[in-house]
Design goal:
- It is built from 8 helices and 16 strands.
- It is α/β, with parallel strands linked by helices and 325 residues long.
- The strands form 3 sheets. Strands 6-16-15-10-11-12-13-9 form an 8-stranded mixed sheet. A 6-stranded mixed sheet has the order 2-1-3-4-5-14, with helices on both faces.
């Protein structure tokens, strides 16, 4: 089930199912609103979006109320998360999935939001999106690639070819917008050659793994996985998190894998990632691309959870195509 695409004048509701909007600087909030307003959309905020408590996130009942209200409101055409965090999976058993299924609309976020986008897709069949948060567009520089792919995904149903961004960054932009470091992007690397087509699934690996053994874990059969991880991972942690996913039912029917960029503090080199992949016989037959422009670095493309994608991993020109979204 694909949600209706956005049109000029549509309302986008920002909610905080993980960390609160209260931690986003006011100037960054206003810049994000201005960007979307200039693009022709109306941005509104949920009742408890900027509520702030001492814990990582606001009370479960408030976060659930905002989520349900956004899906119930007929004026709202897309539900957009403020940013990530640590505890979106607290919400899973309290979500009214039938309510969401009766009121399908765009739902987008990444990182900790992987738990929500994956569970909504599993429980309702509604295609969701792994893409930038609202707060992402509070970034002054380096957002053009992210913005283009986000708008293309949200407003058009035409197939999208993903090309690598020409730069990437992993600096603390939200602390100092004027002191930025951008690196030339060498592009994707091929770890296993081949071609694959399937249902797109994935997001933040360690968050996706929180769903293992629950009714919220999407089926892996026939999928092309998009996997990334954040600054909390390193080579050893990533290895065992990936191995845990490999042990899940249906992984033997996975068609291909695309890995996003790692953050610099993770210190996972191409050589280390290659060694991790080569150590796992389950991956010998699967086409694999690494270093794609998504994850916790800037910029990032948006991809659907439950869409259809094709990857081609010839060494000369690895290709990612989003066929249905």
């Amino acid at each position: 089930m694909f949600p209706e695409k956005l049109k000029q004048g549509d309302e986008i509701r920002v909610i905080s199912p993980a960390e609160s909007l209260a931690i986003v600087a006011e100037d960054q909030k206003q810049l994000a609103v201005q960007r979307m307003t200039d693009a022709g959309f109306i941005v509104t905020f949920s009742t408890y979006a900027d509520e702030h408590r001492s814990l990582h996130s606001n009370p479960i009942e408030h976060r659930i109320s905002d989520l349900h209200e956004a899906f119930l409101d007929p004026a709202v055409k897309a539900v957009w998360t403020t940013l990530g965090g640590y505890d979106s999976n607290q919400l899973l058993r309290y979500i009214d999935y039938e309510l969401i299924g009766r009121n399908p609309k765009i739902f987008c976020g990444y990182s900790d939001i992987t738990a929500l986008s994956s569970s909504i897709y599993k429980q309702t069949g509604l295609v969701t999106y792994n893409g930038p948060h609202f707060s992402t567009f509070g970034m002054k520089s380096g957002t053009a690639y992210t913005f283009k792919h986000f708008i293309d995904m949200m407003t058009s149903d035409k197939p999208i070819s993903i090309t690598p961004a020409d730069h990437w960054s992993d600096d603390l932009w939200y602390i100092n917008q004027e002191d930025r470091t951008f690196h030339p992007n060498p592009g994707c690397i091929v770890l296993n050659e081949g071609e694959a087509e399937g249902i797109s699934l994935g997001g933040n690996l360690c968050t996706l793994n929180l769903l293992q053994g629950t009714e919220y874990m999407p089926a892996l059969e026939g999928t092309v996985l998009f996997l990334e991880d954040d600054k909390l991972t390193n080579a050893g942690t990533f290895d065992r998190d990936l191995q845990s996913l490999l042990h899940q039912p249906g992984f033997d029917k996975v068609q291909g894998i695309v890995f996003g960029k790692f953050q610099e503090v993770s210190d996972i080199t191409d050589e280390q990632l290659t060694a991790i992949i080569r150590s796992k016989r389950e991956l010998d037959h699967i086409p694999i691309i690494a270093g794609a422009s998504f994850g916790h670095t800037t910029p990032m493309f948006t991809f659907p959870i439950g869409g259809r994608v094709r990857i081609s991993t010839s060494n000369e020109s690895p290709c990612i195509e989003i066929l249905k979204h």
